[in-house]
Structures are given as structure tokens and as C-alpha cells.
């Protein structure tokens, strides 16, 4: 018996997931409950467990590729079982869906071209119809309806497919769901103890109390950000800019910062506490946090219908690995001292290099710093790590002739470039942010105050 | 020596249900019963009293005939036929248990059980040993019996218990009921309907002391309207026979008073049946006479379990059944018991009926919950108007933040049937929102549950 592995719904709002890494290879034996893959969702990177035992016969969704929830992503079966039918199904399905989506558009344009000019009355009728159609189209967007629709689809699917197949519905009591929602808890990580694994109140409470033990900031999660609905102009900007460049419309602003005092500052710190050497990067992290506090627009995230402004500052630091890069996250930078940041970043970077970071240590950043100073680069621009709204690219500190009070002086200078998501940040704000950062680094005393 | 997987002592709603579940799980099961199958519940409790109450209700309806434009002359009724009918019902159900035993291949040993060790039982009949049984596990489900008041001797004539009250040949002209728990209140209703002058004396401040105060206060005024005299916060002391009557001395903070009645019904609670079972020799732990058990209903003696009234509150038939099933599933499958007393409904079958589940308003506040309360009276419900059953209300206690249903309390003609809906809602961990948006058919009394839920959310419609 072959089992289809479908993209699971790992969080309430998850619509698609990306395979970060397959933990099993084709041909590997998997047991029910084994971790199959690491999946990136809209909220976090989560482990996906196998719901059935057997041999992982085929991986359909490759690493780094996304698929909608419910799509076939792998097949578990017996060693010599014929799975060609299922493989085919997996290949055909997405294509079909796309066709469907295209259909109405074509029809509409055909109609527009072929139809003769309507009379006034006809126009009114058409308008009415259009309104109706609009309503129809908009309806599914409303939350409640969408859920019902999904449910119906799922139920249909369940009837059609074999019963033994893994299920993607999460069974949870209304009360448990409400408590989880209010506590900002992702229900897909909760283990249910009710009948058939249904999640009940007790499970949510114990997950929350466990989570609180591990990371105290979960408690504050509700207050971690505020939401603001998108204004019409913001929506238009978002739509148009996305058309011109990728899903995240980037723009870049560069500034050059005089690092003389920062170097002196760092050296003094080094003598002050030998056991915790503070790096330029640590100073940058702290300085960025101060600037982010002043410009919360940059410490934000774009969502389909709203912008999320974080009330906390979690800064990711890009760390190069042999085969890629990872961004360990220093949480609540706004509350930490420079020495605390230095200590934590040192530990995290070491862990990152040993590939020992836990998911909660490399997810959830609200802003990222990518520092290539040690590679002797003058300047570069970085790609934003969604759903974050900006990333700071840092070049090397280079001695340069600069004009200071009408004299040419040789000074240590550093170029930084911020990449911003234009859907939420405009150029001036980015420039102001860099100005603030410049002040903080050129007069670093502010960092310790 | 006959060997079994499980021996159950007692065949009440705890014992017989446990036996059936055990047999379903493949355990070779024996039940020892010294009286009729079905225990107090079927023979001397829940069931026969419900039959008597139905008679009282029919009688009430006749009395209300005028309201419906139905008149009659010479309304005749005798309590003897009511008793007869109730005995018939009890007998039928006891026979039903016998059939269930046969169907489930449960071996019945009539006689008195005595534990000779933690896994052996001797069965005696008329003082003679008739059987010796052995099993790895034993469940004690011996139940309880009416408790007596110190200083008042129960003679079965002038001073009686619920057992005698169920089979009186004639309605006493006046009846003093000591204790206003479910039993006292149900008999007060029956005898009041049949024309007895009923006085209820309760030591605590409220009748039905475990129920929500707001509900019982309404019930109290309803009873007073029916002509039942009620004294709460009152203690009883001594009795004296005075000719055909008996005099009872009663004292409260306010007064000391003598009350005279034809009979006294003592209904102040129940004592566990733990005597002559061999528990002392096995050193079974008890608390105030009730057998102490752990979460899975095992006593301090390994393999010896106890369920139902004999382990203490709540002394309810359905609680005993649940506990019995839980104990058996633990024995057979090692499944940890999950009987949730917060989801245990409690019902009193007087008219209007009282039914509740979960926390009362006072208890919820005492526990520190931030609560919303939803209320809706039956008076504002169309069906209740049509039925002329307008007394009472539904009251729902809701935790504010998440809308958890902490408790529900119903006073009304069909309260005991209606509480089931809230039982399901609580069991499934519905919030009040789901209960409020459940469509209740119109016209039904159950609409009141929906309206009370809406009221808790500030969205009540019909008031």
C-alpha cells in the first residue's frame, strides 16, 4: 500500500510550504512519526513528520521548492510497489489547477473584444452583473467562507482518497483553538491527547507552559507587534512594484560612515572586558536596534492585506556556511547590552558554523544584518529575507581620503547599503534610518547610554 | 474455587455497567449481589422515584385542568396504585439487568461477598458459605444507604427513610422531611402533590445546597407557592411521639420550634456500605467511612478497586457507571481514567426540575474566574407559554476571556433532559459562542439554552 505524502498545514494561516531540507533520502526506511523534512511556512520552519511507515519511494517536491498545502510532495510505499500512477497524478495536478485559474480571464477578455458597444440599459445590467461577479469573487476572501470552502474540499478529498492516507486537518476543540490563538500559539505544534489525537484545552495549556519555560518571550507574543490595514495607496504601490521586481520589490540606499570613533570605542571596550570581545558587527547590531526603534517602519513585515509592525527587535545575523548561509537571531536586541549581544552572537555564530542551531534560534528575525566586512568588499546589496522588510549589507572598513573641514584626511570609512521592501518602506525613511545609524556609529557613546 | 479475571461486588449502576464493559473487553467476569440486580438505583432509588414523580406530575396536570378548559368531577387518586406502578417499573428494569448479564455472559453469584484476601471472595447465603471465587482484580461497588440523624431513631414507622417513603400505603396527612438535598426535595414534591402537608428542614442556608443559589432561591419560592413549608439554617434535635403524630424539635439562629407531623422522612445524606466485607483485615484505607481510591479507582490494596457511592461524592448513578467503566478499562487496557467531575450533570426531578453541570456562580467566583453570566427565563419562550410551563430559567456561567462554559444551571419543566446539550458542549470544549450559534429548533424549550448563551455574549434576542 503506497501512501501519499501531502504538504501538511502546519499553521493556521499556512497556504503553502517550502521544503528546506529532506531529512530522508529516497529509498530510506521511515517510521510513522519520523521527521521527513523541514518545511518553511509563513510562520516558521517546522519539522514535518511521517504519518505512515514504509520506504520513502519518491521525493516529488525538491528542496527549496514550494507547494500549496495538500499537494503531493512525496510517496511512501513498499519496496517494490508500483507507484507510477501516483507519481503521474502528482505531476498532472498542479498544471490542471493553473489552467482553471486562467480560464475566466481569457473569457473576460474575449467578451470585451467581441461584444458590441452596450446601450445604456445594457450597461447598467452589466454593471449589476459585474457587481455580482465581484461579490462572488470577493466572497471566498472572507475568512469564514474560505474556511468552510476548504473544509468542504477537504471532506470531499477525504472521501475520494483512501482512509489510511494521512490527514491534513488538525482536530482541535473550539476552546483549545481560542486559547491557542489568543496566546499566539501555532496549533500545528501541539500534540493532541483527546480522542483520535484531538487537541484539547489541556494540551494547549501544557504547550504554552512548556514554551514559556523555554523562551520567555512567547508570553509577550501578543504584544510583539501591532497590525495596520493597508491603505489603498499602499496597496497600489505594493501591486505595481511587485510587477516590476520579484515578489518583494527591493530598493537600495547606501551611505558611507566614518568609523574612526567606532574603532576607538571598540578597542576601549576590548580592554574593559577582555573575556567578551565586542566585534564591529555587535556594535552594528546595537546601533541598528537603536535606529530601528526610531524608524519602526523598517522593523516591519508586509502581508497580503496588512503591514505588521513589530514591537520587538529580533536581529538576524547572516553567517556564511560552506554550503550556504544561515541567519541566527538575537532576540530583543532593544533590551540587551552590548556585552550581552557580543556574548550571544559569538555563541550563535559558533553554533551556526557547527550546524547546531535549533529552529527557534534561526527563525523569527524582524531585521537582518549581512556583514561582508571581513571579505574586503567595498559595498554590496543584499536580498531581503521575507517576511522581513529590510536587510542591511555592510562592507569593509577601508582607509579613504575624505574632505573634513576643507582638508583631505585619511579616515577609516565603511559603506552600508540597506535593501528595503518598497511595499512598506519609502526611500526617505530608508535614508533617515541610515542617517540615524551613521550618527550612532560616528558618536558611539550613544550605544552604551 | 472458581477463577475469574474480575469479580465485582454489587450490581448497582456502578457494578453492572462495569461488568458489561469488562465482558466487552474480554474479561471473565463475576458479580456478587446480595439483593436484587440493579442496586438501589433501579430498585429503591432513581427509577421507582421517577415513576412516583410521574404520578405526581399527572395529578398536577389534572389539578391544572381548568387552565386548559378541562373540567371533571370527583377527581380520585390513591397513592397505593402509584406505588404499585413504580414497583412494576423497578422489577422490569431489574429483570432487564438479568437479561444483560446473560447476554454478556456475566456470572452472577447471589449472596453476600466477603473478601478473604486481596484476590479472593467468599460468597455466603443465609450465613452459609456457598462459593469461593478468585480473581486478579476485584471491584467494590457496594453503594450506600440512608444516613441517620444522631438522636433521631429511624423506626420505619413514624421515622422513615427514602426506602419506606417509596412504598407507603397511604399518604400521611403531614410529613416532615429532614434534609433538602435531591432526595428530600423530590419526596417533598411527590407528597405535596398528593396532598400531604410537607415541611422541609435543612441545616444549610439553601435547599439543594450544591446547586446554584439563584436557581434554588427560585425553586424555594416555587415550593412555597405550592404550600411546602421550608426552614433552612435549621437543626433538628429530638422527637417525641404524640398520639398519632410525632413532634420534632427544631432550632435555628432565630428560633427554637416544635414541628408536629404524622411522619418524619430522614434524607440528610447517605452512608457507604463498607461493613462485613473484610476490608478491615485487608487494611483498606477509608476516609470518613468512604473507601479511598487513586485516580484509577484502585484502593491502597493492589488489585482491589472501588467505585460509586462507596467512594464518596458525587453520589450519583451516572457517576458510578462512568467510574466503573474507567476502572475496568484501566484493569483491562491500562488506560488511565479520565472521569471529569466537572462534566458530571446533577439532576433533581421535582417540578420545576433542577439540572446543572459544572461550576455554580459562587464556585466560579471563588475559584477566581472572571465570568460572564447568561440568563434567560422560560417565561419569554414561546413553547413554554404554550405548555403552561413558564417557571424557571437557564443560567450559564462563562469564563470571560476564552468563553469557556464553566457551568450551566437549569430550572424548568424539562431541565433534566435539556442539560445533556450542555454536557456535550462542555465535553467537546465548545465555547459559549458555539453554543449560542447552535440552531435550536423553534418552538422548543431548548431555545432557552441558546438565548441564555447569547445573553452571556450580550446578544440576547427575545428579551
Helix and strand arrangement:
The complex is a heterodimer of chains A (449) and B (463).
Chain A: E1 3-6, E2 16-22, E3 29-30, E4 35-40, E5 45-49, E6 54-59, E7 66-68, E8 72-77, H1 84-114, H2 120-138, H3 143-160, H4 174-182, H5 201-214, E9 225-229, H6 232-244, E10 250-258, H7 260-272, H8 280-294, E11 300-303, E12 306-310, E13 315-317, E14 319-321, E15 324-326, E16 329-330, H9 338-353, H10 359-362, E17 367-371, E18 390-404, E19 407-421, H11 427-442, H12 445-448
Parallel strand pairs in A: 13-17, 17-18
Antiparallel strand pairs in A: 1-8, 2-4, 2-7, 3-6, 4-5, 6-8, 9-12, 10-19, 11-12, 13-16, 14-15, 18-19
Chain B: E1 2-9, H1 15-24, E2 29-33, H2 39-44, H3 46-63, H4 79-103, E3 107-110, E4 112-117, E5 120-125, E6 128-140, E7 144-146, E8 159-160, H5 162-165, E9 174-178, H6 182-193, E10 197-201, H7 213-226, E11 229-231, E12 234-242, E13 245-252, E14 256-261, E15 263-266, E16 270-272, E17 286-287, E18 290-291, E19 304-306, H8 317-333, E20 346-348, E21 353-358, H9 361-366, E22 371-377, H10 382-387, E23 393-399, E24 405-412, H11 415-427, H12 432-436, H13 447-456
Parallel strand pairs in B: 1-2, 1-6, 2-3, 6-19, 8-15, 9-10, 9-15, 10-11
Antiparallel strand pairs in B: 4-5, 5-6, 7-16, 12-13, 13-14, 17-18, 20-21, 21-24, 22-23, 23-24
